[in-house]
Amino acid sequence: MMQIFGDYCEGQPNSPEFLIIGFSPTSVPLKQRWRNNGLSADFMADYLTTFFLGSEDDPASMRRQAEVKSAVSFIANELLENAMKFSDETSSYPISIQLQLHPDHLMFFTTNSIPAETVDRFQKYLEDLAGCDPEEMYVRQLEHNATEETGTSSRLGYLTMMNDYMARLGWKFEIVQKEPEVITVTTMVQLPV
User: What is the pLDDT of residues 37-75, one digit of tens each?
Assistant: First the structure.
């Protein structure tokens, strides 16, 4: 089984510049990983800025470097948090994040296992997301979050990527193991630079 949602594309394996970080979901409890998510996202952003050299004599290039660094840090952190939070706790399938650098865009890929019982609900959300006006859905979600008492899921990360960073998003679901069944979801974010 492979299902695609949104603007998913595989990227270009021949990308000359890329960075991949992998995590074992069973090595450290999830609550202890939250700090690592931010550190990993900031590392990716710092790594990337070496390719967007700013000149102190050119304030515009320094501003652009800071904008790209901030965008990469935000997107990587959101992707890692989602991958960790929604990963199948019964699976030892690794969680990974990849950043590819291309001439006019960046591509992020996170892959994690997902509990089979949550796949349909998540795919329904992705269908809603693909067919929406992102700004309108963002406002609706803010209103919903303000009235929700449990506050367990903000659902603002993807919408922020789309609205604030003009990112294109896509998802690929695959069964990667039959016995026991392991389903993975790969989230792809394409960011223009």
Answer: 899 999 999 998 888 766 778 888 888 889 999 999 999
pLDDT tens, residue by residue, 105-161:
999 999 999 999 999 999 999 999 998 999 999 999 998 888 887 766 788 999 999
Q: Which residue has the tokens 């515009």?
A: 60
Structural tokens at position 1: 């089984």
Question: pTM of this prediction?
Answer: 0.91
DSSP string, 130-188: HTS-HHHHHHHHHHHHHH-SS------HHHHHHHHH--EEEEEEEEEETTTTEEEEEEE
| Number of other CB atoms surrounding residue 95 within 10 Å | 19
Is the distance from CB of 11 to CB of 188 less than 8 angstroms?
A: yes
Q: Which residues lie closer than 8 Å to 37 by C-beta, 6 or more apart?
A: 77, 80, 81, 84
d(CA 186, CA 161): 16
Residue 54, phi then psi, degrees to nearest 5: -100, 150
Dihedral-angle region of residue 11 (phi above 0 means left; psi in -120 to 50 means alpha; beta otherwise): left
